[in-house]
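In response to reviewer comment 3 from the previous cycle, which asked for concrete evidence that the modeling workflow produces usable outputs, we include below a single protein chain processed end to end. The sequence was submitted unchanged, and the resulting structure tokens are shown without manual editing.
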Amino acid sequence: MSIIIMSNKKRFAERIRKIQQISNLSLKDFAKALGVPEKTAQNWLYGISYPKPEILEKLVLQFKANPNYILLGEGPPILDKKKRPTSPISKGKRGSAMISPTLSSA
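The workflow returned the following structure tokens.
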């Protein structure tokens, strides 16, 4: 059973590493972009530990990473190569569209 777990961790680590490589970021910059210590990111890349769900979400949003690729190894690593790395929040796709002029005048 531990062989299967180690194999899965290694494959998961390879997928995270692939996203880092496509992004052309050093380990330090990759960790900084995700808001984690460098050692934490290094542990993911070596298959020692897994990122928390909120970090996986950042990986998807900031790097346009394909969630199916990260979790299952299916599909391309990056969904939209043209707009990487940006976040929907920084582009105003969240929040600003939710404010209605009719609500603010009430």
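Confidence is low (pLDDT under 50) at residues 1-6, 84-106. We consider this sufficient to address the reviewer's concern, and the full set will be provided in the supplementary archive.
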